[in-house]
Amino acid sequence: MGELPSDWFLKVRLKLRHLQLFLALDDHRNLHRAAASLSMSQPAASKLLGELEGRLGVQLFERHSRGIEPNWYGEVAVRHARSILSSLQQTGDELNALNAGNAGAVSVGTVMAPAVTLISRALERVHRQLPGLKISVDVDVSPALVPRLLEGELDMVISRIPAGFDPGHFVFEEIGEEAISVVCRREHPLANAASPSLAEMTAYPWSLQPPGALMRQRVDHLLMYHDLSPPTHIINTSDVLVSLALVANSDTLTVTSREVAELLCDPQRFRVLPTEEALSVQPYGLITLRQQRLSPGAAALTTLLREVIAEGWAKG
Fold it and tell me: How many CA atoms lie within 13 A of 166 on its CB side?
C-alpha cells in the first residue's frame, strides 16, 4: 500500500455502508452473521469489502475457516469507524434536541470522586443557565473512559490519562489529587483507636479495587513501603456500594475517596480511620480531545466546570 493522500476516502469512494460493515464484522467475526445484521446478502457484503480493500491496496480482514477477524490495518479501520458513527449519532441527538427547543446534548465521563461533588455542583449551575441541555454522566475508571472519549462516545472526561495513550491527543487541565480514606464500621475493633497502625489494619479482611486499579496500587505500594504483607483476605471489587455493604456488616476495611466517604459513610454506621500519613492518588483533570471542537452545550458545561474548580473546589 502506497501513502494515502489526505482525501483518500474520496478517491476510494468510502461509503457509510463500509463503516457499518467494519463494525458488524468486528462484532460478529463472521461474514454471514455480519451481513445478516445489516440486512445484506453474504455475497454483497463480501463484494463491498473486497472492492474497498482493492482500492486501498491492502487487506483489512483475515479470512479463516472459523470466521473473519481484523488484522492491524483492520483494527485501525474499525476504531475510526466507531468514532465516526458515534459522532454521527451524537449529531442526530443534538439536532433533535435543538429542534425540540433544548440546548443540545452532552456526554460526560468521570472517575468517582469528581462525580460526588465537582460534577454535581457544575450541573446545578448549568441547569440554571441552560435548562434544556440534555446531560448524561457515566462513572467509571480512567482506562475505560479515555477510549470512549477517543471513539467519540463522550464529549469530555474527568480522569487521568492511562499509560499507553498518547498525551498529544488530549488537552489535560489538572484539577487535583484524589484524597483517599480507610473506612470501617462503627463497631469495628479499630474504630476508636487513636492511631491504628497499618500492621493492625492488615490483620482484618479488606475490600479493594481489583489489582492494577489506581487506588489499589496506592494501597499496595504503601504496604510495600512499610514492609508489610497484604491482608490475607481481600475481596476484589470496583463497586463502592459492594465494599461499603461488606464493611457495614463485618470487620472488613475498605479504601475509598474522601468525597465518597463524606457522602455515603454515615457517622452513625461508619468510621474513617486515621492513617500514619495522608493518602492520595495521582492528580486527575478535565480531558478533552485536542483536535475536536466542543459543541455549544459541551463548551458551556466546560466553562462552568472551570469556574467551580477555580473557586477552590479541589482544595475542599
Answer: 5
